[in-house]
Design brief:
Length: 204
């Protein structure tokens, strides 16, 4: 996974394309996409607890498009403040809210308005009052410095062109001794300049 993009790379176009794609996933999760989606995929291929997923609204889980299960790394402690960066429709976020309990907080950040709407509606339907949804991207999370216990994420860093800045933002918002649980896509070879400049590969 490259940590930087070519000098002349069109970052604005990439962000626009990612936002457009995931708006479509939120609005039409059963549409034609090149990646897996939904609760059956999450449980069958990524090891999510099917019973837990069934407690979440279908409007949330149908748009799930993660690539790994950050909850499988370690349990989220009761009472913790957890931030899900690139939270999408909120599957991981709402699971986090259930795991940390009423005394904890689950804050989701995503740049796609349609996904944030799914989060808000899903939390309400699931009766989870410890969930917040905020607009933002990896260049500047709308989270106070050293204010959260844990950061979770799935499939965010692989589509962000400035990974060093995104990781620095994660470090900024974590409390001393805080933890990250991230699942993402990695590759074992260094890509050439042509591949790095291909927006379709970044979004794929």
């Amino acid at each position: 996974m490259p940590i930087s993009c070519p000098v002349n790379f069109d970052v604005k176009s990439l962000r626009s394309e990612v936002q457009s794609m995931y708006s479509r996933v939120a609005e039409m999760p059963q549409g034609e996409f090149h990646f897996h989606r939904g609760p059956a995929y999450a449980a069958g291929m990524l090891g999510y607890d099917a019973a837990e997923l069934s407690r979440l609204p279908a409007t949330v889980t149908s748009s799930f498009a993660g690539v790994a299960n950050p909850h499988a790394i370690a349990p989220l402690p009761d009472g913790a403040t957890v931030v899900d960066i690139g939270c999408g429709a909120g599957t991981d976020l709402l699971l986090a809210a259930m795991h940390v309990g009423p005394s904890g907080r689950a804050i989701g950040v995503d740049m796609t308005e349609a996904m944030r709407s799914r989060v808000t509606e899903g939390a309400m339907h699931a009766g989870l009052k410890n969930v917040q949804s905020r607009a933002g991207d990896a260049t500047s999370w709308p989270i106070d410095h050293a204010s959260v216990d844990m950061v979770i994420s799935s499939a965010l860093l692989s589509v962000d062109p400035d990974k060093e800045r995104a990781i620095a933002e994660i470090a900024r918002i974590l409390k001393p001794g805080g933890r990250i649980q991230i699942g993402d896509i990695i590759i074992g070879t260094e890509l050439d300049e042509e591949a790095l400049a291909d927006i379709d590969l970044w979004t794929g």
